[in-house]
Amino acid sequence: MEKTIAKDLLDIEAVFLRPNEPFTWASGIKSPIYCDNRLTLSYPRVRNDIEQGLAHLIKEHYPSCECLMGTATAGIAHAALAADILDLPMGYVRGGAKSHGRNNRIEGLVKPGMKVVVVEDLISTGGSSLECVDALREAGCEVLGMIAIFTYGLADSTKNFAAKECSFHTLTNYDTLIQVAVDHKYIEAADLEKLKAWKKDPHDESWMNK
Higher confidence at residue 96 or residue 92? Predict the structure, then answer.
């Protein structure tokens, strides 16, 4: 599954690899990869692979799950589609509380003790994703963990999730994707060293000179 989803993302250009012309993230980090998983919703075959995969992750790792909660906005559609497959309730967590009406941050029915899995599209450092976990815990939910389509596999994310005592599982990951990209000629084999060096320390721009 990891290789299938990785190739899906490359095929539809939801993931770009540019080891010799790096992107600049909003944080200022120079990166050889850019990921826009929102594109997956526009491709029915890929979308089906992903939603079936997410449903499988939940059944395998969080079989006691009672509700899916998407992250706003990227995780909402995936939470809804996976919840439909599993016949589970769903909702979503806003980036902040509404400034009108009931001032909800969590949309959908939640109850104290409800066993929830958070659905995300991409895990980088985990910062914004874990804010959703905090909001659900504050509402009395038992957050079983998080699932996502893709993770860069950065050390910061491992550390941040461990600090919040929250597990996560993804359909595919950076290491798998860059190998699939070489195998299917999306990039040259000579670029692998740069791509691996970036993951070790994204803040150290010396990877660009490899």
Answer: 92
Task: Characterise 52 by phi-psi region: left (phi > 0), alpha (psi -120 to 50), beta (else).
Answer: alpha
Residue 27: per-residue pLDDT: 82
State how far the alpha carbon of 186 is from the alpha carbons of 61, 149, 156, 191, 192, in Å: 32, 20, 27, 11, 12
DSSP string, 43-73: -HHHHHHHHHHHHHHHHHH-TT--EEEEETT
* Backbone φ and ψ of 49, nearest 5°: -55, -45
Q: How do residues 11-67 score in pLDDT, each as one tens digit?
A: 999 999 999 999 998 888 999 999 999 999 999 999 999 999 999 999 999 999 999
Residues 6 or more apart whose CB falls under 8 angstroms from that of 190 comprise none
Report the phi/psi class of residue 25: left, alpha or beta, with left for phi > 0 and alpha for psi in -120 to 50. beta
Output the pTM of the full model: 0.93
Q: Are 210 and 194 in contact (CB under 8 A)?
A: yes
Question: Most distant CA pair in the chain: distance in Å?
Answer: 56
CA atoms within 13 A on the CB side of 81: 20
- What is the rounded CA–CA span in Å between residue 20 and residue 137? 42
How far apart CA 46 and CA 106 sit, in angstroms, is 29
